[in-house]
Amino acid sequence: MKKLLTILIFIVAVSQVLLAQGEIDEQNRIFYRNERTVGINLNTNGFGISYREGKRLDFLNKRIIDIDFNIIKHPKEVKLSNPWVQSGGSFVFGKQNELYSLRGAIGHQHEIFRKMDLGGVAVKYFYSGGASLALAKPIYYNILYYTPASTYQIKQEKFSEDIVNPTYIYNKASYFKGFSEIKVYPGLFAKAGFNFEYSKEDKIIHSLELGTAFEAYTNKLPIMATDDNQALFLTLFVSYRVGIIIDPLNPDAKRMPTLFFRRKN
Predict the structure, then answer these.
(1) Who contacts 71 (Cβ-Cβ below 8 Å, separation ≥6)?
(2) Predicted pLDDT at 2
(3) Which residues contact 122 (CB under 8 A, 6 or more apart)?
(4) How far apart are CA 52 and CA 148, in angstroms?
(5) What residues contact residue 262 under an 8 Å CB cut-off, 6+ apart?
């Protein structure tokens, strides 16, 4: 995960240095700047997606509303496969539930440095907090049961303490099995970080975020069949965000321009 975050930051930094050379900003800028963005998040305990709306309060400040959806991993997850089964597929031995978090928050964003030209970077800090729901979906496995006749039969079961060896597992059952048994765990969360916006188009947002998030739940979240499941999570994250600037004073500004290429005059 650390290597992946380092590579992502390096690619974005180098690409902006190369693209900025010799370009002059001649765009008509939007003054009343609301924003809508979506993001891809990489966390130290998983990954996810997010949606954000930012409403301008004054020249440098916005009120932000965040909705995040993340997949949470346990630090002891290790993928294995049954060495005696060629087409069995991989699984995490001892994993009881797939865990997801759905978070909604309200917060604040402040711009520290404004972007002055095409090669510039706007630097902002942000913080937000709100409610979180953890969704635990049981995992079913196809378990091998050997018979006295030296054959075996397969039964679909959840992981239990009776499964003492990975060779007892043929593979995972259908992902959709267990949806009717989802359990919900309420909690609270907060996050804060820095946003580096480097888009070359004034109406478009391309940015990289770095920060930390804290989640607290009412119970330990049962990811693995061990005693070290957690109710508190402190994570680092990096997020790539893309979106648009919306000027409520100009109806034409709500039209979706291209997200990846600056329009040529």
Answers:
(1) 46, 47, 48, 98, 99, 100
(2) 53
(3) 111, 113, 114, 115, 195, 196, 197, 198
(4) 59
(5) 200, 201, 204
For the chain, give percent helix, strand, coil, nearest 5: 10, 50, 40
C-beta separation of 55 from 34 below 8 A = yes
Residue 177 Rama label (left phi>0; alpha psi -120 to 50; beta): beta
Q: 254 in the Ramachandran plot: left (φ > 0), alpha (ψ -120 to 50) or beta?
A: alpha
Cβ neighbours, 10 Å, residue 125: 14
Task: Give pLDDT < 50 ranges for the chain.
Answer: 3, 7, 11, 14-22, 24, 258-262, 265
| CA 165/CA 70 separation, integer angstroms | 30
What are the extents of the domains in the chain? 2-254
For residue range 129-176, list pLDDT tens digits in order: 999 999 999 999 988 887 777 677 888 999 988 887 888 888 888 999
CATH classification for the domain delimited by 2-254, as one of 2.130.10.120, 1.20.1250.20, 2.60.40.2140, 2.40.160.20 = 2.40.160.20
Q: Which residues pair with 128 in a beta bridge?
A: 107, 191
Q: How far apart are CA 152 and CA 170, in angstroms?
A: 11
CA–CA dist 62, 56 (Å, integer): 4
What Rg, from alpha-carbon coordinates, does the chain have? 23
Bridge partners for 246 per DSSP: 34
